[in-house]
Target: RNA methyltransferase TrmH, group 3
Amino acid sequence: MKNFSKNNYSRKNNDKYSRRSQSKNREKSNDFKGERFNSIKNNTFERTNLKKSDDFKGNEYNILRSKAKSRNNFIQPKRKISTNNTKAEKYAENSSKNLLINTNVKTFDDWIWGKHSVFATLNTERPINRIWCTSEIFSSEKFFLLLKDLKSKGVLVEEVSWSRLSQLTSGAVHQGVALQLATSQTLSLDKLIGITKSKSNNPIFVALDGITDPHNLGAIIRSAEAFDCKGIIIPQRRSAGLTGTVAKVAAGALEHIPVSRVVNLNRAIDELKKNGFLIVGLSGDGQIPISKFDQKAPIVVVVGAENKGISLLTQKKCDYLLKIPLRGKTSSLNASVAAAISLCYLSNI
Model:
């Protein structure tokens, strides 16, 4: 019995011990679970706090960004205006450059180059303004007589280098010779004098000294035809030719007035004097006002360039130097305007 009681006691104690240990383990496990739950809870709380702080920061960033946008929107028009201005300035610069480039581009509609093409043109009656050729072409058996004959008729023939001719034709295959056609046929001075004297007792010619601007030449031809002048005399050198620009500015007058192109203007003046013409030069230094000139005779009106005027040698050959009185502060007139005013006076004598 004692042993049984002892065993029972030991069993009871063991049961109590095991129960206590189990309860302790349960408590530990519960504590561990609680700690784990608390740690998870703390982590989730921290995450939510971080999210909230991130959200707050994000909201704060968005607010700042929206403020910056509003500021940029407020300042934007000035920037747009400045960019628009710069774009407009660039467009204007490009357009002006394009205009300058377009105005400098040559049109070769009235040009012919190449040996065979030029030779065929020279053997026709087509009007020629100017010929460029190398010294080899000029002295060749094929071209020499033709070029010499055309030169005596007033066509300007220039001997140039191969490179210069390439520059004039913009790199075309010119074979050493090129020419520019004229829009109107020219007459010799003898023919012009003979035709006009048979039709009019007191004809008026206009002789041009150094008018190299085609617009001025076209305007003078237009005015001369309008005031019933009988002919235009232009020198071979130091003068614009009868190009398309001249014909356009003349507005059809070139078809109704003969033009003579002479080798030397001073020799032509001597020839006109022999045929009874008075030589009248327009000059700012003239002694006689044009309104007081009353000579009734065949007249040649000599018009010089705007900047240089009539050359000194040509002035010496003039019978009269007339001036147009100016009352304003402007000291000179355009050459075409001066020619028109003088022709208006002289045609009514």
